[in-house]
Amino acid sequence: MGDRSEQVTSPRLAQEASPAREEESQSIGKMDLCIANSIHQIEEAWRLVYHSYRDIEIIDPNDEELHTVPHAVSPDTAVMTGRVQDRLVSTLTVMVDSQRGLPLECVYADEIDALRKRDRALIEVGLLADRRREMIRSFGAVRDLIRMAFYYSTYLNTDAIIGVHPHHAPFYERFMSFEQVGPERSYDTVNGAAVVLLHIKVAEVIKPAKLPRGLAYIKNNPIEREFFEHRFDFSPHALKGSALARYLHKKKYLPPFDTVSSKHTA
Predict the structure, then answer these.
(1) Domain 24-250 CATH superfamily
(2) 173-205 confidence digits (pLDDT tens)
(3) What's the pTM value of the predicted model, to 2 decimals?
(4) Which class for 21: exposed (0-12), middle (13-18), buried (19 or more C-beta within 10 A)?
């Protein structure tokens, strides 16, 4: 597959890879938005997550210098990345609800189950990291990664949830119409860091004529379904012999293809 880019006029939001094909990408200003489609790109993204989380001491060190959760090892998962001059600067992972559940259920089991009981199919947005420390520099990247997650959710016909630090919740509520549906709690996966649960009805929030600035940007900059088709499939063959496979084995996570996949396709 060749590289496919889409130019838009709106402003944007360790390990060297040698992929068999380039990432599917969009060019936003000086940043290319991509879907990781090789084990090298997946490890590069989750290595950025590792170093970002280690910098703020919310995870423990490991030899592979990777951080993920077992729910992310699924053919439905989409790992979004942002690159500047071919350097990875931002990443976000979308995980689709399945038999394995969602990562935030270890903190918000009742709240997430209540959403399911309303016949709401769900994705979880997580593993967000940006190489730049200043919020003002990473704002555009975060916005565009959320835009990618938004359209993936749209094509899967799901709602979305995200767990964020309480200090960051107003940004998601004000600019993107997320609603808080779970109180502040301690999240053991990130060494007890504070978290609140946010939820958004993706298909409904863009219907009003007047939208918050973040949602207006998302609505005015759509992403085609084909953009998501060539994401990494997490098959045993693709994982074999990788640093990620060693990491998953050491963490005693469930085997990656043990009938946990959802019925969603995009």
Answers:
(1) Gcn5-related N-acetyltransferase (GNAT) (3.40.630.30)
(2) 998 999 999 999 999 999 999 999 999 999 899
(3) 0.84
(4) exposed
